[in-house]
Structures are given as C-alpha cells and as structure tokens.
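Regression report. Comparing outputs from two consecutive submissions.

Submission 1:
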Amino acid sequence: MYQKTVLQNGISLITERSQSRTVSFGIWIDVGSRDEDQRSSGCAHFVEHMLFKGTASRDAAAIARELDRLGGQANAFTSKEHTCLYGTVLDKQLPQLVALLSDLFLFSLHPEQEVERERLVILQEIGMVQDTPEDLIHDLFAGVLWNGHPMGRPVLGEPEAIAAMTRTRLQMFIAQGYLPGRVLISAAGNVEHDLLVRMLTPMSEFGLGSGEVSVAQGPIRQAPGPLPSRILVQPKRLEQAHLLFGTYGLPVNSEARYALALLSTILGGNMSSRLFQEVREKRGLAYSIYSFVEASSDSGVLGIYAGVGHEAVNEVLELISVVIKDICAGGITREELQGAQDFARAGIFLAEESMEARMMRLAKNELTLGRYLPIEEVEIALTRVGLDELTALAADIFGKPLAGVVLGPVRMDDYRADPSLLAGESDE
C-alpha cells in the first residue's frame, strides 16, 4: 500500500508497505553533480562522504559502530542529479536506523580535520577510477557527449577542485541545495506510515527552510544541448582496447522510455541480444559487450560498451554498425520483441523481492515523474510496445553518427571503421 505525507517543513515522505521482515529507508536530496559549477566540482559527492564523519552526538567511530550493530546494509551514493543516504534492516530496527540517518542528515558537523582526511580518501577514489578502464571510459564518454555542460563532469569531481575544497565551500553548497522541497524520504517493506511520520518528528520540525517550499528552489538546471558527434582516442597502456560508443537518448519521463528500454535489450542488453551473439558468441571477440540506457530529468544516453583486443577494434565496430543498420531497417523480429518484453517483465518483478530496490524505485518515480507508478502500469506499457514503434525509435536515435571513446593501446590511425557509424571529427 502506497502512502504520502508532506511534513510541516515541506519534506515529503512516501512509503509502500508489503509483507516482509525487512524495511528499507532512504533520505533523498534532489541535488547532484550537475548542480555544481567548475569551482565546486565534486561538492555533492564530498558532502555525501562528510555525512558519516560526525555529528553533535556521534563521532565518526561511533557512527561506524552503530551501523555495524544494526546489521543489514547502510550506504550512500551521489549521482548527477541525486544524493541518497539509505539503509535496509530488520523491521524491528527501523527506529534506530531512522534516528541514526536523521542525525547524519540534519546535524553533521563537517569537522575540519575530517575534511582534510576525506579529501585524501576521495583523491584515492578518483585514482581508483583512473586505474579502472571500465569506469574511466564512462567518465570520458560523458565528457565527449556533454562537453561544456555540468553533465559532462565526473561525479567524483576534478582532482584540482577536490584539492582546493574547503569546509566553507561544502557548507555553502548544502545551504544552497539542501532545501525541504528538494528532500524526499522513502521507505518500503514492513513499515507503518503513520508510525514513521512520528519517528520523523525531529526532521519535520527542523528548519531547513520555510514551510512553503517549492521544489524549484535551489540550483536552477539548464538542459544540455546536443553537440556534433566526436570521437576521443585516449592511448593508455592496457591489455585491452575499451570502446564506448553512443548517442543521445530520452529523458526519464519520455513516453517512449519503455520502447527505448526494449530497444537496448535487443541491441545488447542480455545474452540473446544481437551484439552479445554476434561479437562474443559467434566470433569470441569480447568477453564483455553490452548496451545501456541512462536517463536524467531532461536528457538521456544510449551507449554500447565493449572490451576487445586492440587488433579487433575495427571488426567489432563494423559489427556494431551492421547490427544497428539492420535494426533501423526494420530487422527486429516479433520473437525478439517478445523475448525482450519477457526479460524486462521478469526483471521488474524480481526486483520487487528486494526492499531496497522497491524503496529506490518508489523514490525515483516520485522525484522524476512526480507520482507513484504501480508495477502493473509498467508491465502494461512494456506489453504495448510494437515493432513499428521500435523501428521508428531506432531510426530516430541512430539518425546521426555515434560519438565515442577508444581507450587503450590504440591510436586514431589504427582503425578504419564504417564512417556512417562513426563521427567525422576526432581527437587524440
């Protein structure tokens, strides 16, 4: 059962009760890395780390001990548009989890010495991404696709900005973005809505802002515009060449989002997909190859990743081109569409077994769509997608050359892929 309450200071609470021995609870802030400027690059992620570094009643060590005693899982993450602090515990432990996470969210002190320590931790995290090509290439690709826009900057921030980060700058970022109208609390599992409202009394009374708060307050987001397709070749001493090619997709609230999800599944979303079969199963050219969809409030991405031997770059890119052209020409079969629908349907119902997944789906729908989205509505929408819609969408999405990144032991002169697939402009 779904319920929603707006607390007296403007924070929204949504819950979905179900039969379970566990409950997942999350505090969401509609603020992420796209709300930063160049000088504050990495602020949202830095703030997320600092939430665990001490409050008036708990120091960092006490927070760690209390989280461990709760068992279950507790964590936080930052994305381009959201920051989330969450945990999943046995239902009887919900009051302790709510008290702890509320304290971290409301009363974190950001001690100066902890800022200095966490700066080193985040710089190590950035270094870890630099050493992990499967992660690095996604940051590089975002920079190609959204060059000059905050969406193109890494969520972790630029090393120079992190090195110069101060406690004052972090607190200013919080004051500008952590406003009641941008805060959402969600819970799923064996949770009583009215009881949770009472647990949140300290948060409902806390003066994050005035009682009349608009979600539009805080950072004003500018939608990114499409850029000419470009290829970045980044030489790096690696065993494999890593490829990430893609184009602009759809915003998260697009009516065609279900068709796009199915298109990605058919293209490279599972083991029976076109790319997995052609590149890995039939030719053994890659261990990992897949397509993916990313969607934000006003933009989106459809991408294809592959890790291949450097000598196979040309062949794999040609195969990608052949598959895309066939799909755009109406080559998707009714059997493929049915298989993708069955795959998607199974995925959404299996996810319902996880209270954490349900809590996150509940929150994301509220933040991005502004409403509760029953799982049955999603199932019906997937079922209604037809072959003509898929073909038309593919032709539109792939109507221009793909942008891309080649990372590894490859130079621009080393490959000669289909020019109708790749962009005419390139960087090295």
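Submission 2:
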Amino acid sequence: MHHIDVRLEKDVYDANNSLANHNAQHLKAHGVRAFDLLGAIGSGKTALIERLVPLLEKKGLKAGAIAGDVYGDDDFKRIVATGIPAYNANTGKECHLDAHLVEHAIDHLPLDKIDILFIENVGNMVCPTDFKLGAEKRIVVISSTEGDDVVNKHPMMFRDCTIGVINKVDLAPFVGANLDRMQADIRRYNPGMPVFRTNLKTGDGVAALLESILA
C-alpha cells in the first residue's frame, strides 16, 4: 500500500510539473515573465504587488496578477484596485495553487497586455513548495511578526525559492524578532539566495528587491 501511495504522489507531481513547463512556454510565447509569491497569510504578498505595480509602470512595464486563495476575493480586490488585470483563483479545500489552476487563470488574462505576471499563492508555508506553476522565479515573503524561528520551521520553502523577503522590519523590536537570525537561517538553507528587508507600509527596500526580481 505504501508503495502505491508513493507512486501516486510521484505521478501527481510529474503531471503538475509537466503542466508547469507548458505554462512557462505559453507565457514566454507571449513575452510574459512570471514570478511566484509565496508566504504565510499576512506576510505581505499582496502589499508587495501593490508596491511593485507603480515601480514597474515607471519602467514602462505592465503588470498582471493571479490571486490564489482558498476562498474569497479580498486579495483580488486589492490587486484590482491597482489598475492591473487580475484573476481570482480559489482553490476550495486545497492549501496551494497548482499548475492546472494557473493554466486556467492564464486563459482569462490579456497576456499580450502584460509584461510581468505575479502569481500570489495561497497563504501557507508548507503546501505550495512541491507544486511548480511555471514561473521563472519564486519569491518567499516572511514577516518579523511570524517570529524569528519561522525560517527554521520551514526549511523546504527556502530551499525551493530564489529570492527571500523579510517584511515588517519596523515591527521586529516590538515582537522581539531578531532579523539577523532570520537572515542567517535563510543563508543556511539556501546560501546563494538574495535576501531583502522591507517595510511595505513605507516602501523601504522595494526598489532594490525589484531589481533582483527583474535581473
């Protein structure tokens, strides 16, 4: 029985990754660069999109987004308010987006009017790691308010991402979070990953982060 479970799991991942590659090719054919945003609920994924959209506009780049949530459209409404095309992808009971949901969402977006696509995953630090979606980089957003042991508790998330963001740096003293410890933990699990410290309320650190995203 155990072997059957393992084989089924592998089949699910293989099918997902094959579809993710198809998504990547489809986006590339339309000249769209896609980036995954991962992190817990409240870490700042939506706020990051809100900050990046006007910076991209200054560079002459048009953004679009897929808002992934188990239920509801709170993040989607915030993203639409920035003026960019977006699609709300509800997962129902699933705690992550998968390549099929993203394929469906892409079909509802005006790809020829989008240069940069943000795929905001469901707020979860575990489930999304195994499911590639077709993006060229994966950005993980954590916040000081999650505690400075958050990285140590979720090593796979950091091994599988390409850029790290430590948000809500202004609140670190109030919650007793050691930002240096958080950054050192990220380095331990993914030594080459660039890490940016941001305050998305003020926009501090976002310009440098965008340069790394687009690099």
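Expected: both submissions complete independently.
Actual: both completed, but the second showed a warning that disappeared on reload.
Relevant detail on submission 2: The chain has one domain: 2-214.
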